[in-house]
Amino acid sequence: MSDTPVLLARIRSHHLGGGQAVVQSLPVQTRRMVDNASPRSVDMNGTYAVGQLYVQEYRLHAPRHALPVLLMHGGGMTGAQWEATPDGRDGWLWRFLQAGFDVLVADAPERGRASWAMFPQVYAEPPVFRTQEEAWTLFRIGPRDGYAAAPAARRAYPGQQFPVPAFDAFARQFVPRWPGHDDMALSAYRALLAQFGPCLLVGHSQGGGYAARLARDCPRHVRAVAAIEPTGMPTQAAPTGVPHLLAWGDHFLPEDAVWAGYRRETDRYWAALRQAGDTADTLDLPAAGLPGNSHFCMLDRNSDQVADRLIAWLDAHAPLPRRGEPRC
Amino acid sequence: MSDTPVLLARIRSHHLGGGQAVVQSLPVQTRRMVDNASPRSVDMNGTYAVGQLYVQEYRLHAPRHALPVLLMHGGGMTGAQWEATPDGRDGWLWRFLQAGFDVLVADAPERGRASWAMFPQVYAEPPVFRTQEEAWTLFRIGPRDGYAAAPAARRAYPGQQFPVPAFDAFARQFVPRWPGHDDMALSAYRALLAQFGPCLLVGHSQGGGYAARLARDCPRHVRAVAAIEPTGMPTQAAPTGVPHLLAWGDHFLPEDAVWAGYRRETDRYWAALRQAGDTADTLDLPAAGLPGNSHFCMLDRNSDQVADRLIAWLDAHAPLPRRGEPRC
Asked: Cβ-count burial of A235 within 10 angstroms (0-12 exposed, 13-18 middle, 19+ buried)?
């Protein structure tokens, strides 16, 4: 499959959603904007586009599926996480195209090519930056004391599927993020769904939580949710008619309260979906014969095998007839 | 040509170049990172990847050209400027793929998916943001008093090729930028060229200046430069053996000192290249029968025609035998 070429009918990108902000009463600066050019006056008072997302659109010449997959990155990341693995293998963008899906790859507002706005004039607060040290533990690559500045000195969890020698390359993908911007992101994603119509949502981490919330709030525009280690579940479930899949990796430590909280909250929401009559499946990767995954199974060494499981589930469950009333 | 599908052998992306920065002695914060989750401790002291660029790699199944085109965006923009026009037509990425070139699309450091670093701890200064009002005049869409908040009330230059009704959509692409980061960007671009080998550089505005500097400093890795309304020329020319093309649009006002300066500086450098024995052509679009272009001819309504001119020039001039010693 790795060498199968892909015949595309279109590659485009779009900036969707958001609105405008007007900034006033900033002092006019004089700054050298171009090397070897004279300093010039820079007046940043004026009108800005804010709150938009960015989405790449890959359309196959002959898609096997009627609906596109929308790939939704996690917090502190961009759509680049779907394009390649840090050790130089094909990403899930390519795998989904090879599997016959049209693919949309988003950058949520304030990440990557979606752009971001000045603070405190537009955003209230400064952003949060993720250190490599935090990523090492939060993404369950290895124990806290297993991180070292020198890559060769690092100690990952035994059986780790993450391509550990490429950890520093992976860290080049990290982008700043603003907590408290969920409504901004969800609004932009709703604008995307309104423009592109029903999609199959594949969301990772924060993007997985967004996918679940979009399915609850806009079931008309969502025909499947595959949530990979999601965070930020809706607090209340409602029948959506949308099949849900939940995927968990490995290396959850009993003493890790952060991940225990995310899992508990998500399992509770999945149970509520089933209670409401929805399909809400769980793919526990270690239990399913794929041990060792980090928080980033789409980048792990067995990423192709995990993709195969997701694609098989999408083939079996999407698109399905929907129940419930359109709400978007 | 618009409907010709493209058979791709690969789509990947990479983060290249840069290094690491260690940030220390920031206070530990307590912030709610996920809606409905408990606030948690956020310690931003630690190690960050800084100075890297991002590049998408589109490889054709059967490229007509031996060398890839590297598309280098302008200041305050990202690689998205090559992916589509704001009025929803195909971008130059797609046109170059259809024309048989492998294509690389970069986001320079601190733009888009390349990510950016905190200030003043890593970057010395805050960034500069471009207002819609500044863009309207600087990009030569219309006169200063032709901008209005209401799109319908705006007055562009007569014969304007920019898709004026899509100006607000275009403004969603703008990203902050840091003046004084040219060395960071050029270093990352050199890392890209070292990894991917010789490329045909197509650079716009700031990216056009970078392309000219890379051709001067790394002639071994550059086989052609097409600079579209470039800014930031090298101060001194040296024989490169690399054919250069310069493209200018329309609507240059006699009283516009900023653009007069850029044109004077660039024309001087082009003359010096010719003096040194290099091919250094100029495509003055209005003189060549394509009047009305803004600063963004790749987004203008006649973008396909401008692309055809560039592709014809690349077909005629690249790759060519090189003179001079390898220096990268």
From this structure: exposed
